[in-house]
Amino acid sequence: MITYSELRRELVGMFADAGIASAAVDSDLLITELAGISRPELFLCAGEPVPAELERHIRELARRRANREPLQYLLGVAYFMDLELEVTPAVLIPRPETELLAEYAVKHLPEGGSMLDLGTGSGAIALAVAAERPDVRITAVDVSSDALEVARRNRVRCGGEVRFLQSDLFSELPGERFDLVGANLPYVTQEEYPALEPEVRLFEPQLALTAPDGGFRLIERAARELADHLNPGGRAIFELSPPQAPRLAELFVKLGGFDEIDVLADYTRRDRFVSVRIAIQQ
């Protein structure tokens, strides 16, 4: 029988040969998640034999990972802030930088305020904010019914009072206004899409990734409709690609009625967000 150490070494080599930069990390995660042990425990039992059924299961998923299927889809979970979320190919895998959008909402929402999460996907942003700010009323929308099924299961899994609705941006929210709108909408260009990593291009939903007009169409639509859905003094924050940040900031200037228009950086100091406040009429 093969030992944990031998199996780990084999997986690291397999993943490295497949061009996976995080070969060692992915090997550790795959083994520990399926074995139900921690990473330190993996090294403590390095010389112990791997049970035959567990080895079969690990090898089965390892072959799929070597074909560049995302580890999160293989395991069915992804981590976002303090949440463990279900993820399927119906939703994007939550990115670490998007946690900054959720943190912005937690910080800027008024006591007892209201929030709209545009393009909720797995529900990561809405549920993370709900966990930190149970005083806030949160609505989350997505155009994909399949994504909303995952989000609703995550609401049961993680808790939190979040209203999930199927809506094309604001289409099903006539007359509703919020203290904060968070938008993580598709922003990848059609030209960029073929060059994306295989994990993204081959497995994640293109509907949630790409948009026409240089990836800007949905962001622009949301920006133009935003004023009708913010309370006086309400704020919004958009996640987007760095080249789009100045374009969106300039659009808000041209639209008028907004102040505190800021471009915010992500963990790698790249311009990743644009935040605005709707001006309070004097």
UniProtKB/TrEMBL annotation:
EC number, UniProt record: 2.1.1.297
Domain (Methyltransferase small) ranges: 100-192
Keywords: Methyltransferase, S-adenosyl-L-methionine, Transferase
Keyword Cell inner membrane: no
UniProt-recorded name of the protein: Release factor glutamine methyltransferase
Residues involved in S-adenosyl-L-methionine binding: 119-123, 142, 184
Catalyzed reactions per annotation: L-glutaminyl-[peptide chain release factor] + S-adenosyl-L-methionine = N(5)-methyl-L-glutaminyl-[peptide chain release factor] + S-adenosyl-L-homocysteine + H(+)
Pfam family name, one: PrmC_N
Domain Release factor glutamine methyltransferase N-terminal: 6-76
Protein family according to the UniProt entry: Belongs to the protein N5-glutamine methyltransferase family. PrmC subfamily.
NCBIfam families, per database record: hemK_fam, RF_mod_PrmC
Function noted in UniProt: Methylates the class 1 translation termination release factors RF1/PrfA and RF2/PrfB on the glutamine residue of the universally conserved GGQ motif.
One function term, GO molecular function aspect: peptide chain release factor N(5)-glutamine methyltransferase activity
GO biological process, one term: methylation
Methyltransferase recorded as keyword: yes
